[in-house]
Amino acid sequence: MIAATSSKVCIHCGTSFRPSSIRPDFCCAGCEFVHGLIKQNGLSQFYELQDGGVFPVKSVVFQQRDYDWLIALLADGRTELDLDLQGISCIGCVWLIEKLFEKKPGALAIHIDPTLGRLHMRWKAGEFDALKFAREIQAFGYLVGPAGGPKRGNRSLIIRLGLCAALAMNAMLFTLPGYLGMQADFSFAALFHRVTFACSTLSFLIGGSYFISRSWHSLRAGVLHIDLPISLGLIAAYAGSVIAWLNGATSFLYFDFISVFTFLMLVGRWTQETAVAANRNRLLDSTIRISHPQQGEIFTVPPGGIVPVKSKLLSAGATLGMEWISGESESRTARAGQLIPSGAIALTSEPVELEAVESWQDSVLARMLDTAPQTDRRARGLERFIRIYLVIVMMIGFSAFAYWMGSGAGWLASLQVLTSILVVSCPCAAGVALPLAEEVATARARRSGVLVREPGLWDRLPKVDSIVFDKTGTLTLETLALKNPESLTALDDTERSILMVMVNDNMHPTASCLREHLMAMGVSGTGETHESIGLGVELSRDGHLYRLGRKGWAAEGEGDCIFSRDGECLAVFNFGDELREDAGEEFNALRASGYDLHILSGDNSAKVATMAARLNVEVSRAHGALSPDEKALRLREIGSQRTLMIGDGANDSLAFNNSLCTGTPAIDRGLLERKADFYFMGRSLRGIRSLLGIALAKRSTVRAVLGFAIAYNCVAVLLSVNGHMSPLLAAILMPLSSLVTIAIVLVKLRR
Fold this sequence. Notes:
The chain has 751 residues and is α+β, with helices and mostly antiparallel strands. It has 26 helices and 27 strands. The chain has a seven-stranded mixed β-sheet, with helices on both faces. α6 runs antiparallel to α9 (255-280) and α13 (411-424) packs antiparallel against α25.
């Protein structure tokens, strides 16, 4: 059990955290580092422009990123560039990047679209250094990548929405005189009807076609979509109005209704898609670029690169990170001739030469990259509701048509009764309110540090009764923790600078951890180092030999890593996994809420058992040393159709495919962020509990909206069956019902 301490708010990002004696004002070293840069550069106005805080920086600023793609883009001497941008969360971020750009020699213009996560910049040839600028804004927590094609802004939907807004206003303008008593023999009456017909027809073609085409494609795929009843209502209103107009029955025209209804439905859909697209656009297109060697082919993997297939090591030696593929928190050392598993990460400072012993299509990693979920994630409940709803409406409509025909009212009057039933019973309120509920829920989740990227998640989350956590990088932080940071402060400035040189370009997890601490302290340094595989790195400076590595090789001492000069120990460093600060508290809260909690990890069983004991997880629900296939099998045994899986590595990929819902804290590894329903920021797990609570609140809101919609439809259909529904009454009831359902959403979800 983890003792609770009082929380503070990070003075950079605004995230609530538990302070430590080492870092009392910041939630992470990244925020501390960026805050220092902002102060040094006189950019403190950034904090005045923040709108509700920004996301925690975490380790982004300390990572060694590959910018070869940018060097290749700049090779042709271009003077402007479009790039994808990650890390933008408020207007303060936009202002900060613009100010950094303006200070650069040769900078001409920069435009940042925070909604699409994209920037365009233009500069003078030979004066501006775009590569240096990319590295500088990374130091402030913003990452750039190659422009990945059209972003999810749905420009087509926005254009439809704008045009239909203008058409709706004109349709109402030319229909209003008729509602106010304009006589049929008025000289402009026929013209007004033609203009209204034209506006309605254009609305039907421009806006209505959006819903009709989606309904058609859904039906062909065997799915009942919410757009289907909307499409039927539009078709019935338009066809019925055209027939009535051709027969001179001008009192049965729904042309203005079609225009206004189409506009409102497009507003609802735009609201829904914009919220999720904004979250997706916060991520770079981090598609993993991996070679696909065939069996027997000799290839190289660069420092930090991923071994694509099982291979034989041809280089003299290599240090390999296994966390991503197997969940092991410690690195491995391999010698020439040893087999390297698919998915291992090269932690060496030089490229590694290998020979493939299998083809890409047979590798574990190829299966990991399969993004197709194996569980059924469709919204079955909504489909059942639509099916029942349509059957009832159709039965009532055609029964009323038959009744009126049998009573001698004539086919035109009977057709108008059928049309009015199909028109007023269309779930127009749900078409606006349900997307709004999704947008409000998504916005609330974002304020909790959780970004939802798949809208169907909201329908699936309430079904979850089991939550499965990976260990390394999920329950623990993504990077190793330095257990004795006082060993760094005990060094003098020269020694810290030399240590910085030794870890600056090293991919080993311990080096990354030390680099993070040294950069946060403002330490810098340059120089050449030599790596001894499996032992450590060394550097010659001013007649002295400095080493950082294993005890016995660097110097005598007790610790995970030793820093020495001429064999004399200068510092001993101890590392370990750091449990997320509120993991114990959140596990207790989730357990109290009725969720079954499990830990599935590729790390060794002893470490998993220790972690389970700290979190009060039963031994039978915590399993270690699992392969990716074994993880997926265990998850299926728990229950694929009711499980939320939280993981961060490629070894979680198959389990993701078999889970009802998925989430990840990892947004820079190029795999799970493309498969996850949501991802969360910062060092905390509390966002998961918030997300589950919001999902339950949204479900309650949806039920209230549907309950009102059913009551409204009963009244509206009763009026239509008795022949009392008119276009004017429909035009009043439709927006009124929408306002009521919107009020239900805002009241229930904004509490």
